[in-house]
Specification:
Distance between the termini: 37 Å
Number of strands: 11
Order of helices and strands: HEHEHEHEEHEHHEHEHEEHHE
Largest sheet: 6 strands, mixed
Oligomer: single chain
Mean pLDDT: 92
Length: about 240
């Protein structure tokens, strides 16, 4: 029910923005702090709807009036491209990120992430907060990493699956989960958590954020895409912990 309500709200916001001829951007939840800072000075500020890449892609497929999409993985951009919804020649890889294990700041711990990792012992009676590993990029990366470590079987029945990576972050920040997996940029943005460990990059597919205009996008979309590649925008992304492609 919560996901349906959130989808309805996003669609309503997008429709309202479209009526005002403002550019509408659907962007992965992990981009919120950086993108909000980048577009703040814009004279014609776009409307940005944040959420799980999976949910946003499906809304676009179902006709949500978005002009641009920034996904937290290649799969969901590929999905829209195969549906013929991506404007030809506009897609590019924008950013990279890192995957980290987090704990509540009030209950700090440090863990060595390596083969034979006994993560279940560190959960006690709690659960591990992940973005839904069935569809959300951050959760899919986390599952791939735990599988490669031989640790997924330890936690597969103890996952607190959140609708997006920021929701997983919030579960740990509130102390409702003793551990969670998010992007480095999310951990940087939340003082209520601390980084307990960093996942080696070879444990999961490369974390890549592609961006593209969508079919029928407003003319102002091109300016928004250009803005993301400016030195000023790149400095903001890097400040928040992203790597710039």
């Amino acid at each position: 029910m919560r996901r349906l309500l959130a989808a309805a709200i996003l669609a309503a916001l997008a429709s309202h923005a479209a009526a005002q001829d403002r550019v509408v951007v659907f962007a992965a939840a992990s981009l919120k702090n950086a993108l909000d800072e980048i577009v703040a000075p814009s004279a014609s500020k776009p409307v940005i709807s944040y959420g799980a890449s999976s949910a946003l892609a499906r809304q676009i497929e179902n006709g949500a009036p978005a002009d641009a999409f920034i996904s937290a993985d290649l799969d969901w951009m590929d999905y829209l491209e195969k549906k013929g919804l991506v404007a030809a020649g506009t897609r590019r890889n924008l950013l990279g990120n890192r995957l980290v294990l987090i704990a509540p700041a009030k209950q700090p711990q440090t863990l060595q992430i390596a083969t034979g990792f006994q993560i279940a012992q560190r959960l006690g009676g709690g659960r591990i907060a992940l973005a839904d590993p069935r569809s959300v990029p951050a959760g899919k990366y986390a599952k791939a990493a735990f599988e490669k470590l031989g640790a997924w079987d330890q936690i597969s029945g103890r996952v607190a699956a959140a609708e997006n990576v920021r929701a997983a972050l919030a579960l740990v920040a509130r102390g409702e989960a003793p551990l969670g997996v998010v992007y480095q940029t999310d951990a940087n943005a939340e003082p209520g958590v601390m980084v307990a460990g960093v996942f080696p990059a070879d444990l999961h597919p490369p974390i890549v954020y592609p961006v593209a205009a969508l079919k029928g996008a407003k003319a102002g979309t091109a300016q928004f895409l250009q803005l993301l590649g400016t030195p000023a925008a790149q400095r903001v992304f890097e400040k928040h912990g992203f790597t710039v492609n």
